[in-house]
Amino acid sequence: MNKINNEFEYLLHLLGSVLKDEKPRELPKEVSFERLFALADEHSLANMAFYAVERLENKPDPELLRRWETVRDRGIVTDMTQLSELELIKSAFSERKIRTLPLKGSVLKSMYPQSDMRTMSDIDILIDEENAPEAREIMLSLGYENEHFGIDVDDLYVKPPVMNVEIHRELFGEIGKEFRESFADPWKLCVWSEDYVKELPPEEFLAYVIAHAIKHYNRGGTGIRSFLDIWVYLDKTPGLDMGRMLDMLRPAGQAELAEDLIRLSRIWFGGEEGSEKYDEMTRYILSGGTYGTMENLVDNKISEYGRWGYLFHLLFPSMSYMKLMYPAVKKAPFLYPVFWLVRLVTKPFINGRENLEKLKGIMGRNRS
């Protein structure tokens, strides 16, 4: 890998040293602890990086070290809370005979040296759509507030200060719709057991993790953590049938990009030789944080639809999107044009900052 960013390359080294339980190299002269912390925090990896930083002979100044340690300590508390709440939810759902499929971070956590190293902004669980009302009843009884219900493909529940739970009714909605064919019935893919908590086989689970990363990558970008997840899963799951895994992504036309994401994870964490292609991917990833940037999203959509095509797409979304976002359209499709008007009137007052950024991008922003 060619020289791209000093802090980025040293951060990869620190993360790799944590995974291998090795003492890291000391901070290079050209690297700033402040910038290193900011980059790690931007990619939701500051707590994991701290486990390497505390093994250095020459540590950050006391104030920054305390800030960094506080992030790690909060990560530990959040991790304990999330795992405890997940067990409560799984138990409550099982008692009501609601089958559940834990997704993404809650599964990947167990493969890291310590579970708190793999942060989660929320817990993701799949259930059957017909069980969503009963699941809401259970979540409310567990002290959660329901932020939204029946919109898109997941229902959001929150319990301050740290709990956010997304109860999915499908794995992919309008965003990531290219993967809906492969994951149309996840339950058929599951490893079956006597209880109501299911799991995906290794190949299907990795395919889902990569599909989710691609969904973000193709929109506004995805962060370092996505590639760390891929590397850790590959390292901890020997004997994977990679051909079968990639076959899951071929109907979406994303098998080649999946191979590129896997290769990039091996370049970053396995020491494989890179090329200009992967350096360019790295630059794109570094332009955003954990979930990419709005600027990247707009640029990618303009490349896909054209400037005015993207504007039309925003103003007049497809029927499938409107059904997901407005349950009334799903029940009565003839209301489709009516809710176009509803959306045009209400959308400027919802996510106003995000909408303004999209409009600036479409009209042509000044880029330095």
TL;DR?
The protein has 368 residues and is mainly alpha-helical.
Description:
With 368 residues, the protein is mainly alpha-helical. Among the domains are: 177-189 and 200-292, no CATH class; 298-363, no CATH class. The protein is 56% helix and 6% strand. It has a five-stranded mixed beta sheet. Helix 1 packs across helix 2 and helix 8 (202-219) runs antiparallel to helix 9. The longest helix has 34 residues, at 62-95. The protein is globular. The protein starts with 5 loop residues before the first helix and ends in a 5-residue tail after the last helix. The model has no long low-confidence stretch (mean pLDDT 88).
How many strands? 5
Summed up, the helix count is 18
Question: How large, in whole angstroms, is the Cα Rg?
Answer: 22 Å
User: Fraction of residues in helices?
Assistant: 55-70%
Structural class: mainly alpha
User: Which overall shape is indicated by the principal axes computed on the Cα atoms?
Assistant: globular
Largest sheet geometry: 5 strands, mixed
Strand content: 5-15%
In angstroms, what separates the terminal alpha carbons? 26 Å
Write the H/E string, N to C.
Answer: HHHHEHEHEEEHHHHHHHHHHHH
Low-confidence sequence ranges: none
The order of strands across the largest sheet is 1-2-5-4-3
Average pLDDT metric: 88
Main attributes of the structure:
globular, 5-stranded mixed beta sheet, mainly alpha, 368 residues, single chain
